[in-house]
From TrEMBL, chains A, B:
Residues 2-172 form the AAA domain. Gene3D superfamilies: P-loop containing nucleotide triphosphate hydrolases. This is Chromosome partitioning protein. It comes from Marinoscillum furvescens DSM 4134. SUPFAM superfamilies: P-loop containing nucleoside triphosphate hydrolases.
Length: 247, 247
């Protein structure tokens, strides 16, 4: 089970979702791998990983095996990234089969994990295309905002193209409403617009705004470890159940 | 006066700030140009521009003059972008002087405008480097959040390098706290950390969270036109005054 966490719109809780959904699945007994595909490295940073000896860039460049880049955190395995990943992305642009690099790398470890979650950068560039070509499922965390909606067409088109050309098994597991203030009229209008215009499921679980979720990274912890009784923890545990029930 | 609106962290109100600071400056009598440098095109979208006949990609590719790409909106001139800009960025990677393309293009119109604002994508890739090489001022809109702080080192480093190698006139006008809930302890902790560790001014103006700011794009308007009495309008008008007083 390989899940790409995708949204080219910035700041839609992709990293927060990858960390905390991953942690909730691990707590439910699954063997979980988190892969940071964003050169900015927020995923590793959120889990207290500073100066990782190896990063996903080294693995994609063929310099080391994925297994050498694994870091233990909170019962999860994590592959961190760092800024060199941006240069690698430029180099890859000239290569053959450049969209399938990650798929090849993950094949070697797919048997060792129940769930692999890939945190994507806020772009639809080559790294995100690699994630969508390697994954069998996609989660799209989205704010129920007008500017978030603008991006949904493009994600949808990109997924259709990748299904046709590179990865016929790709499915959208669902759109995850994040940081949603349910009282706001705009939020329900955006949600209805999605329901009427897109074929994707919208998760029943909504991730509510909660300060604990944004505090947790400063302690290098998932919010589930940092604030186990918070609404954020409960939301992500509920999401983990919904994900497992829908697979 | 050319201002790059920069932050590689996603969703930090770069686009919302470019639109509304631009509008407030135009209302104060300035001749203002807005340039959308993000292939996702949120700036044009926020001002109701659909299917622009020409985009900044055509201008950077040398196919048309900047003056042919100008679109009138609310007393501002706007150059929109579209998804082709992402492909252009890849093509540029192989070129000589590829960082100075935008600088060259803006030189031809600098006399016609008092303020040019450049909306940057959530990355420090070639397009943002072009913006930083063309600009004389930088505004960094930032949430007072831990994950926003992670990005500040990298922006700071990038600006230092560009000043040394490409654009000695580049100055950081200031960090703009956006969507800040002042009651939250984390917000003031992040702010203090910035004050103690970075040489940059933090604007006195804070952009408060306000639903009007996120509704305005669905009407294709700046929040100043859409909701002139809202806190968002007041905040951006106050920011315009602060910007003019600090230049
Ligand atoms: N449920 C939540 N409640 C409050 N704040 C949140 C929540 N989830 C995430 N945040 C905060 O919102 C900001 C954006 O989240 P995050 O960095 O996970 O988004 P992202 O989509 O990965 O961003 P990018 O596009 O830059 O990769 C961060 O400061 C994060 O701490
Ligand atoms: N003051 C505000 N109050 C409430 N919502 C806001 C405010 N400013 C911006 N927003 C909303 O927050 C989201 C992010 O804003 P915006 O798109 O301007 O950020 P950005 O930095 O340009 O994002 P990206 O990195 O994707 O380019 C949008 O949905 C926007 O409407
Ligand atoms: Mg992220
Ligand atoms: Mg933007």
């Amino acid at each position: 089970m390989i899940i790409a966490v995708v949204n080219q719109k910035g700041g839609t809780a992709k990293t927060t979702t990858t960390v905390n959904l991953g942690k909730a699945l691990a707590d439910a007994g699954k063997r979980v791998l988190l892969v940071d595909l964003d050169a900015q490295g927020s995923l590793g940073y959120s889990l207290g990983i500073q100066e990782a000896p190896h990063s996903i860039a080294d693995v994609l460049a063929g310099e080391i095996d994925l297994s050498q880049a694994l870091i233990d955190r909170e019962g999860l395995q994590v592959v961190a990234s760092q800024i060199g990943l941006a240069d690698l992305e430029l180099e890859l642009a000239g290569m053959q089969e450049r969209e399938l690099l990650l798929a090849g790398v993950l094949q070697s470890v797919e048997e060792s994990f129940d769930v692999i979650l890939i945190d994507c950068p806020p772009s639809l560039s080559l790294l995100t295309v690699n994630a969508l070509s390697a994954a069998n499922q996609v989660i799209i965390p989205m704010q129920m905002e007008v500017l978030s909606l603008q991006g949904l067409d493009l994600i949808s088109e990109t997924i259709t193209k990748i299904k046709a050309a590179l990865n016929p098994h790709l499915e959208v597991l669902g759109i995850l409403p994040v940081m949603v203030d349910k009282r706001r009229k705009l939020s329900s209008e955006v949600r209805e617009h999605i329901q009427e215009n897109y074929p994707f499921r919208i998760f029943d679980t909504n991730i509510r705004p909660n300060v604990r979720a944004s505090e947790a990274p400063s302690f290098g912890q998932s919010v589930i470890s940092y604030a186990p009784d918070s609404n954020s923890s409960k939301d992500y545990q509920q999401l983990a159940n919904e994900v497992l029930n829908n697979l």
